[in-house]
Amino acid sequence: MTIRSVPTPHGDTPSGPSSIAVPVVPKRIAATTTASTAARRLISGVTRRSSHDVDGWLGMHISRSRWHTQGMDTTASTNGESFEILRQLIVERRTNMMVDRERSVPGSTIRDLCDLAMWAPNHKRTWPWRFATFTGEGRMRLGEAAAMDLIAGGSDDESKIGKVRRKYARTPVVLVIGSAPDDHATFHDENRDAVAAGIQNLLLGATALGLASFWSTAPVIDGPNTLELCGFESGTRIIGMIYLGWPTGEGLPGERPEPEITIVDS
Ligand SMILES: Cc1cc2nc3c(=O)[nH]c(=O)nc-3n(C[C@H](O)[C@H](O)[C@H](O)COP(=O)(O)O)c2cc1C
Fold it and tell me: Are residues 241 and 137 part of one domain?
């Protein structure tokens, strides 16, 4: 993991890993990184291994440091245990479509998950999260609306349209999650960010409950037929079609590149 440090606004220098508050800049993908190695890195505390100084852009002095992982020092933080629980949940969440189509997910569970989504950060309290849940025959209606939006958008690919008509029946429940529009361009974009953050909350909640989940892109993110069926106002963008169900198998093993972190500390 490559880390660069950044001085705090007050000019004091971060003294250790806990004070790193910097953008993560993924540059290279370590194709060999596996979930287990990523997990080992995440589970561990970080320790400075070696460093060397270079002159950075704009003449700034940048220290580039290498960090490596060792056993998690839970004494370093009173919240080490909480971190470990959260880390496991995050690493265990996998995109997974292998579900029992006949076993329903209680409506109260769906409601709890939507509630969890709404605890994501949200700039200006615009409360942009919009939810619609589809079960039973409702899933076919969702497929029909999405197919109509595809056709209205000019698609004449019969095979693709047919798949869209059928695909939402693959799991017992599909949650459509939209981002409300905002007149202010920045808030409009930030609404989408808040909704994406909320979807991750929801997926982690689903993982914690033992549910399989799959975040998919809508065939048309602002198709009027789908928006109307969902009860979403015009201008809402669909950020995720979330498949949920009880797993019958595991998803593919997780894989992430190593993070590269810039530290500018002097
Ligand atoms: C915004 C967004 C849209 C996605 N849309 C699709 C999609 O349309 N089809 C698909 O197969 N996966 C989709 N995915 C899931 C990713 O393919 C999946 O997260 C990725 O393969 C990594 O797998 P993991 O979730 O198990 O780590 C989407 C993920 C995100 C964040």
Answer: yes
For 244, which DSSP code? Answer: E
Residue 146 CB burial class (10 angstroms; 0-12, 13-18, ≥19): buried
pTM: 0.77
pLDDT given for residue 73 in this prediction: 55
Asked if the model's pLDDT at residue 50 lies above 60, the reply is no
State which residues form the domain around 13.
2-94+254-263
State whether 241 and 116 are in the same domain. yes
- Tokens (6 digits) for 80: 């080490």
Q: 216 and 241 in contact (C-beta within 8 Å)?
A: yes
100 occurs within a structural domain: no
The answer, yes or no, to whether any atom of ligand 1 lies below 6 A from the CB of 200, is no
What's the 117 CA to ligand 1 centre distance in angstroms? 18
- For residue 99, being part of any structural domain is answered with no
Asked if 60 and 134 sit in the same domain, the reply is no
Question: Between vectors from CA 135 to CA 145 and to CA 205, what angle results, nearest 5°?
Answer: 110
Give the closest residue (by CA) to ligand 1 atom 11. 216
